[in-house]
UniProtKB/TrEMBL annotation:
UniProt name for this protein: Putative DNA metabolism protein
InterPro entries per UniProt: DNA_repair_put (IPR023875), DUF4130 (IPR025404)
Pfam families from the UniProt entry: DUF4130
Organism: Epilithonimonas xixisoli
Domain DUF4130: 84-250
Length: 252
């Protein structure tokens, strides 16, 4: 058994896939270096150095067989962060190379492909909920700030949505679970990775006066328009699960 350790990036994973074929490994597994715990003391460790040239070659190969939509599916599996994600992606790529004339991601008779389809649906559902339930708060520096902690790493999947929808204002979305975010400055929309000096709690306390007034008005409106006799908590939770309530001003 040879274990290929990569840096946790999608390009790193594709580089590892390339090197499986480059070095003609047979019995292999691909693992994220940060999460890897060696269980087989006899396994050979292969350290992968991410190379865009190699990952691009894998992407071009995949595009001819599963298309851009198929590549996006594999990316969604990767962003799910599930323990089996590397194995499923590698399995799909192996099948694609063996049958380049077919879109193997449509072969739901295969257990791995079926699992990939289920994961994509879950990740897509979480992406949709993030676009629906994210709430921005205006800070003193005139930046609209929102915090999220989704089950899956969907920040790369909601980037275009928010860039297109809020193109006329500066905004920031921060993933509490993964400690990175998106920042849009009216021109570029880039990922940022704050260092230890970034104090989220202190930043959140710097609300703009307009934001404080807005929150109070919204809470008052929500309270006065709420009809207790027509309250249906079961239906409400169906449409807005409780784990998303922390994003909503009226639930604070």
């Amino acid at each position: 058994m040879t274990t290929l350790l990569y840096d946790g990036s999608f390009d790193g994973l594709l580089t590892a896939v390339f090197e499986v074929f480059e070095y003609k490994y047979n019995d292999v597994e691909i693992r994220n270096r940060e999460r890897f715990q060696q269980e087989n003391m006899f396994a050979e460790i292969h350290e992968v150095v991410t190379q865009n040239e190699k990952s691009d070659r894998v992407l071009k190969k995949l595009e001819t067989s599963i298309g851009k939509s198929g590549i996006k599916q594999l990316l969604m599996v990767f962003l799910s962060e599930l323990p089996e994600s590397e194995d499923l992606i590698f399995s799909a790529i192996q099948q694609s190379i063996k049958s380049p004339e077919n879109n193997v991601l449509q072969n739901f008779a295969n257990d791995d492909i079926l699992q990939i389809s289920k994961i994509c649906k879950s990740v897509s559902r979480e992406r949709h909920r993030m676009t629906a339930f994210v709430r921005f708060e205006k800070m003193k520096d005139d930046i609209y700030f929102a915090k999220i902690d989704p089950d899956f790493d969907v920040l790369p999947l909601i980037r275009k949505h928010f860039k297109d929808r809020y193109a006329d204002q500066k905004w920031m979305i921060y993933d509490l679970k993964r400690h990175y975010g998106l920042f849009y400055d009216l021109e570029d929309c880039e990922f940022f990775y704050p260092d230890s000096s970034f104090n989220l709690n202190q930043y959140q306390q710097k609300f703009h006066d307009e934001e404080i007034n807005y929150q109070e008005l919204w809470k008052s409106y929500f309270t006065k328009t709420n009809i207790k006799e027509r309250k249906n908590i079961k239906l409400h939770v169906q449409h807005v699960p409780k784990r998303y309530w922390k994003y909503l001003t009226e639930k604070f």
